[in-house]
Specification:
Its main location: membrane. The chain has 498 residues and is mostly helical. Helix content is 68%, strand content 0%. It has one domain: Amino acid/polyamine transporter I, CATH 1.20.1740.10.
Length: 498
């Protein structure tokens, strides 16, 4: 049963192993679906290379995140340890700038994952509209998206009310329903000879590509969009406070999911371009798997594909729903959001965070623009990754952190690698995605992204005023207490921010 703290913020329960964490994160390979037809529009068949490089980028970044997740096993992944590293211990003033930076990183991460719910609800509505004529006669695609979002969010809220273990069970079920047919649909075109390598080698690079500033900025933007999908398996580390054995479960879940993602992203894009060609993919930018299914399995196959994709979308919505709610809970335990967001039920579920996440996404669905929502989410993701990697560098360089136990360690010199990729995210990918958005869909997504990110500032100041009476209490939050006395002593040695 969950223990409620004196300030009203509840503990998360240690109830899952690495296999259950992997099951929840298995929705991540499906994040390729919104961009499966998008990347070839800019990169032709080289989109295959971009996906492969982006997953490798995920391995590099996630090695750092796995170390941090096991160093601070009570911190919820990226949102948790970035807040912990940047905060100022024993701060005596009103507003801690280091705490604000860490909190902003967590808010950016929440905004990166949060719109997944809206994006895939819109896709579900679109597929239902095309699959069932009776629905198309009664509802518009927009109405079906709203209805789909409401029904899916409600159903997942009920399932997750009973704790993360049940969410993992749902992940197992949906993974079997969606990932296995997706693998079949990916492998079958190779087995049946429908993949024509000439479609790839004959159009490997865009004919009008030039290595000028315009195209370089577009390339950075493409990598920002790709990493939002292909690097998202760091979500397996989000559940560090809920693993039974974080030091072993976190690395296993992360790297197992990474291998699956690499094979999935490269092979799915290869199969789609190999069957349809770049021109064929561009003709079906939203749902290129459907004509692939028709080519390989006939008309019946296309219907099965749509049903499979809907199940897959519910799986990724489940993954994002859990990750977003845990990010809100983590910010609350660190004092970076009002305490109400940290309330848990008797099963240890942060139910207020779940409700807020669902309500926010219903608002996003009402916007009706999938491309704008995805691009705005990519802005949040580049900010979150950049700040989190800088947090890792700080934790490795500052001598006071040397006393902390690190059950999992990234390779020697990884802080330098992390700094390079931190700078790749901020500012390069951030500038690139803003430029790409301005060229393609105007400034709507950019303004949306920066508006949501900037809303954190007044919310944060409110949370500081709310918690001000407790500023003179012990600096180490209860939420980051370790399970042993030695761990607690270690956390008390965390240095003050400069």
């Amino acid at each position: 049963m969950s223990k409620n703290l004196s300030d009203g913020v509840g503990h998360l329960e240690r109830s899952i192993n690495w296999k259950q964490g992997l099951a929840i994160a298995l929705g991540v390979p499906l994040l390729i679906l919104p961009s499966l037809g998008y990347l070839p529009m800019y990169m032709a068949a080289a989109a295959i290379l971009v996906w492969g490089l982006s997953v490798i980028q995920g391995f590099i970044q996630n090695a750092a995140y796995a170390e941090m997740a096991t160093t601070f096993p009570k911190a919820s992944g990226l949102p948790g340890f970035a807040q912990h590293v940047f905060r100022t211990e024993n701060f005596k003033g009103k507003y801690d700038k280091g705490k604000l930076i860490g909190g902003f990183s967590a808010w950016s991460y929440w905004f990166a994952w949060n719109p997944v719910l809206a994006i895939f609800s819109i896709l579900v509505g679109g597929y239902l509209h095309g699959l069932f004529p009776v629905l198309a006669e009664t509802f518009t695609e927009f109405q079906l998206s709203l209805i789909s979002g409401l029904l899916i969010f409600t159903g997942l809220f009920v399932v997750n009310w009973f704790g993360l273990k049940d969410g993992a069970i749902l992940g197992y079920i949906l993974a079997a329903v969606s990932l296995i047919p997706l693998v079949i649909l990916t492998v079958a075109p190779f087995a049946t000879g429908h993949v024509d390598l000439a479609n790839i080698t004959g159009n490997w690079w865009p004919a009008d590509w030039a290595w000028d500033m315009h195209h370089i900025l577009i390339l950075f933007g493409i990598f920002a969009i790709a990493q939002w999908s292909a690097c998202g398996w760091e979500t397996a580390a989000i559940y560090a406070p809920e693993y039974k054995n974080p030091s072993k479960d976190v690395p296993k879940a992360l790297f197992a999911c990474g291998i699956i993602c690499f094979l999935s992203y490269v092979l799915v894009q290869t199969a789609v371009i190999g069957v349809l060609g770049v021109e064929g993919v561009m003709a079906e930018p939203v749902s290129p798997l459907i004509p692939v299914a028709r080519a390989v399995f006939g008309e019946a196959g296309s219907i099965i594909t749509i049903i499979m994709l809907i199940a897959a979308m519910i799986l990724i919505i489940q993954t994002a729903y859990l990750g977003s709610s845990r990010a809100l809970h983590s910010m609350t335990t660190e004092g970076n959001l009002p305490k109400v967001f940290g309330k848990t039920n008797r099963h240890g579920t942060p139910f207020i965070a779940l409700l807020v996440t669902a309500a926010f996404n219903m608002v996003l669905i009402s916007m009706g623009s999938l491309a704008a929502i995805l691009a705005a989410a990519a802005i949040g993701y580049t900010c979150a990754n950049g700040i989190s990697l800088f947090a890792y560098v700080r934790a490795k360089k500052h001598p006071a952190f040397a006393t902390l136990e690190r059950p999992f360690k990234a390779p020697r010199g990884w802080k330098n690698v992390a700094m390079i990729f931190g700078l790749f995210n901020l500012p390069l990918c951030l500038i690139g995605v803003v430029y790409l958005n301005s060229q393609e869909i105007g400034w709507t997504s950019t303004w949306l992204g920066f508006l949501v990110l900037s809303l954190y500032i007044p919310i944060w100041f409110y949370s500081q005023r709310e918690s001000r009476p407790s500023n003179n209490e012990a600096a180490t939050p209860d939420s980051l207490d370790n399970d042993s006395d030695n761990d607690v002593e270690d956390l008390e040695k965390v240095p003050a921010s400069r």
